Amino acid sequence: MSAQQLDAVIADIHACFGAWSPDTPLPQMRRDWDEVFGKVPCKVGARCEAIDIGGLPALKVSASNAAADRAILYLHGGGYVFGSPRSHRDLGEFLSQAAQAQVYMLDYRLAPEHPFPAAVDDATDAWRWLLAQGLQPGKLVIAGDSAGGGLTLATLLSIRDHRLPMPACAVTLSPWADLECSGETMVSNAAIDPMVGKDFTRQLANLYVTAGNSLRNPLASPLYGELSGLPPLLIQVGERETLLDDSRRVAARAKQAGVDVSLEIEPGQIHVFQIFANRLDEAVAAIERIGTFVRKHCG
């Protein structure tokens, strides 16, 4: 690992998020979020097309080697409050190239304007839309990072419970699967995680899951759900994350439920390090492993 590469990434993270205060307006925070993650020039050069998915905006990303019949529904991170296809476009391009697949990056509704279960409803509707396009479930994948990783798992539960066809596999990057933030690494890794702190994360959880709903609802915190019947699952997470235990616990519970799970803990890495593939060699290697996983299960 290049310490210089990671140090430069962390410096940019601190420069952006360190300027936030309790008085920072939410629209400004959202602009800052998209700026820090979306400002990098893309190396892949994939085609990016704004599309409509059943009334929801999305970005369709197609690398030059992407197969027309293989697709990934991608659910971005951002604590259910931030993020967009813009912030994750570069990651989408790398994924499209590595998996040789079309990547549909859904711009699902955000809290607090649209609290739980809006994001799950949107992702489930997007899945229905993909199936309606004639794409075969055995060639489809659902993937996401952080909150989008938790949303990936929640969407799989929703798909199962609605008796819809399952995707060939799923990929979660640093999934936020426990909105109670009860994992031990929320405390033990607090000093070495430059992005995710327990207090702010709990604030985001309460913006998404409003009064009258439980933070342990499986469609909000899939860690507490019944995970049987899910497709093969790849989980990637950084060693120095406060959310590391979310990945460990989800992997353990999924295995107990009979799910084929692969858990990769990247030494020395931070939350959703894959989003910095333009700058981190380890991120490129991790995305290549995702591509191999997707191609294996999608044929």
Summarize the entry for a quick read.
This protein is of the alpha/beta class. It has helices at 3-17, 26-38, 85-99, 118-132, 147-161, 185-188, 198-208, 244-256, 281-298, and strands at 47-53, 56-62, 67-75, 101-106, 140-145, 169-173, 233-238, 261-266.
Description:
It is a single chain. With 299 residues, the protein is an alpha/beta fold. Helix content is 40%, strand content 17%. The protein has 9 helices and 8 strands. An 8-stranded mixed sheet has the order 1-2-4-3-5-6-7-8, sandwiched between helices. The longest helix is centred in the C-terminal third of the chain and has 18 residues, at 281-298. The two termini are 32 Å apart.
Specify the structural class: alpha/beta
State the helicity in percent bands: 25-40%
Number of DSSP strands? 8
Low-confidence stretches: none
CATH fold assignment: Rossmann fold
First-last Cα distance: 32 Å
